[in-house]
Write a structure and sequence with these properties.
heterohexamer; A mainly alpha (118); B mainly alpha (84); C mainly alpha (112); D mainly alpha (165); E mainly alpha (86); F mainly alpha (236); A: 118 residues; mainly alpha; Helix Hairpins; 4 helices; D: 165 residues; 7 helices
Amino acid sequence: MVLVVLAAGFMLILLGLYGALIHRNILHMIVSFSVADTGVNLVLIAVGYMPGRTAPILDSNVSVADAVERIIDPVPQALVLTAIVIGVGVTALMLAYAYRLYQTKGTLDISKFTELKW
Amino acid sequence: MSGLLSFMSFVICVALVGAAWVAIRSTSLPMAILAAGLVSLLASLMFLILAAPDVAMTEAAIGCGLTTFLFFFVLGRVRGGEHD
Amino acid sequence: MKTLLDVIGALFLVAGTSFLFLGGLGLIRMPDLFNRIQSGTKATTLGTILTLIGATFLRPEWGIKLSLIGLFLLFTNPLSSQVLARAAHRIGVEKSAKTKVDLLVEPPGDPR
Amino acid sequence: MRKFGNQTALFVTLFLFWVLINGSLSLGTLLVGVVVSSAIAAMLPGGWDPLREFHATPAGFSAAYHFLIYFIKELIRSNIRMAGVVLSPRLPINPGIVKVHTKLKSKMGRLLLANSITLTPGTLTVMLEEEWLYVHWVTVESTDIEAATAHIVAGFEKYLEVMYG
Amino acid sequence: MVDLLIYLAASLAGMAFILAMIRFVIGPGVSDRIVAFDVVTIVAITVIIITALEEDRVVYLDVALVYALLSFLGVIVVARYLERGF
Amino acid sequence: MTKRIFVFGMLIGLGAIFIDLLLSYTPDSALNQTARYYAERTATDLGAANIVAAVIVTYRGLDTLGEVTVLFLTAAILVMVLYRDHGIGINKIPNRFLPPTGEMLGTGSRLLVPLILLMGVYLFANGHLTPGGGFQGGAIIASAVLLLLLTNPNQTFNLQLFSLTESISGIGFVVIGVLGMFFAGGFLDNRIFPIGQLGELFSAGAIPVIYTLIGLKVGAEFSSILVHLSEEKEES
């Protein structure tokens, strides 16, 4: 079961990289990056999952005493939470650069930006 | 994880890869952005089934919500420009 | 008594998801955007509310939170479909050939 | 004085929501609720439409109750009718956008009317302009303004007129 | 009995999900796709509730509240984009 | 053409690595040592019911401080990048035509904005008990700002207020961390306030306070990103 999720996550990473490499439009590339980002997060969470256990939140259903036997590892979840928030920051920055490039050049096609070509 | 949740996660994973395919291959930008939002949404459901409600909520509010809004704002700004 | 409540709740769940399924079917079968909004978002609203009622029967102690979700959905869902229908009409989305009458005339002066 | 009353009503509503969403009545919840609700109420000058325009009289509350009953009945009935339309192989639809008239003056009343029309399947408010509503109707039965008004609006309007005027 | 009915409900929700995905893939315009997106979000709320029932955790329901808000805002953003509102 | 071949070769190589990883994956059956420590000690030591929140705010609190700093830098760089130079800009769009939003959206957003704000506050004030926390609550608050922005695109927001909220919350976060060094075990230790009883709103020491500060800060940052990306401003 977890293998299916892992395979889907790997597929997302590969598809995202493929899209980022073949597209010429900057916004399409950013979309592909965000898809790959989601795939990485999915893989991390799927690796941290343990069958038959539940979320690491204590309430009336999961008491303090049997927490060790019933909850899953909280560390990957905390890492992925951080990764998502940083991911939106990176995306916002990329979008701002793309908009700025559009303002100066009037195009979003990456093959038109030839100043640094050698 | 019971059989019911296994079944649901299988359906969601197939839909996830399909939505990612649409996001990568479509030539129209609004469609690609919507499909990327759908990928985030389905991934968030998957996080919930994998017993990570915190991450599911973050992905729904930030990955699927705010990122899509930012994309549409920028798309509204560059509209009328060249598209490939 | 407990099992009777459970069975009633599960029946509500099945009724709600049937409405969801009908909404999905309408989304596929309807010919144009406005009819799709009609069957897509309205049937699903009732379906979700029936599901919430069913879950309330199954776990009575969750009732307050479930009813808050339902209330929120009741206010937000029609608003979003109205705004979408307005925008679609304004940009001139194609209506199906069966459409008999359209009394809403766009005001002149629109830049398109 | 009236403005102050509006702010208080908003505060009370938000506080009620806070207690409901927390689902507990401990001292900490109530204290934080007071602080949060008063902060949000202070940030929104001019009060809150749904409370400011509501006629808080016995007749108003009774009309609200009857409105709710009528709305639920109408919701289920029209959903079942719509299910029949979707399931029938010929797809017997006859769509169109008709124009109807409402007597309601207050903004909140009009919003509730438009939402109720939208939530009952078969009718969808496309635009609300002053006192004219443009409604998309899956099975158009009459294009005349008066007849359409009687068919779509009148049932809800009767109660909303008492509630919001 | 109850388990069987919940299985039936989950498979009906799964079918609604698949139908909405089909509309998302074939829908001719952006506006059709956003309707499909909305339906997927609302079906997702049902899936969350069924998951919470299955795992018996009340804490999952908070996520459903966020979803209800999200479907509303997403549709409004796309609608305003379509009519060139920003 | 060579580029295509290169891309496909790289993807096939990565795919082989992934398939290898996939086939050799075996799920753990018991928690590892760190996770076992967190599961056993969080409730008694820190009093937080949501162990993920405890990890984020206390055990790995320094990382979160860095994360918040990264977000702050993102917002600042975004303002710098979008600052408009009068000489270069090619698309000055003076007073574009914006279609009216209509009465329904106006009334509806007035109805919903207070409830959305309340929901955001609920998420970050209860971060130590239920899923949610500063980042999610901040995003919801930014969504309320987004709704206002959509309802009236020409609305002006008080950007000074945003940056003031952001600075004060950031300073508060650091000050609470430093207080932990003096009155408790170390930097960002949450036991400077009483631990309280598990499950109450006033429990888990400083975790709700820090999450509230993070929520306000993140909400202000996301709001300012949204406002800057959506507004055509003559000066930043």
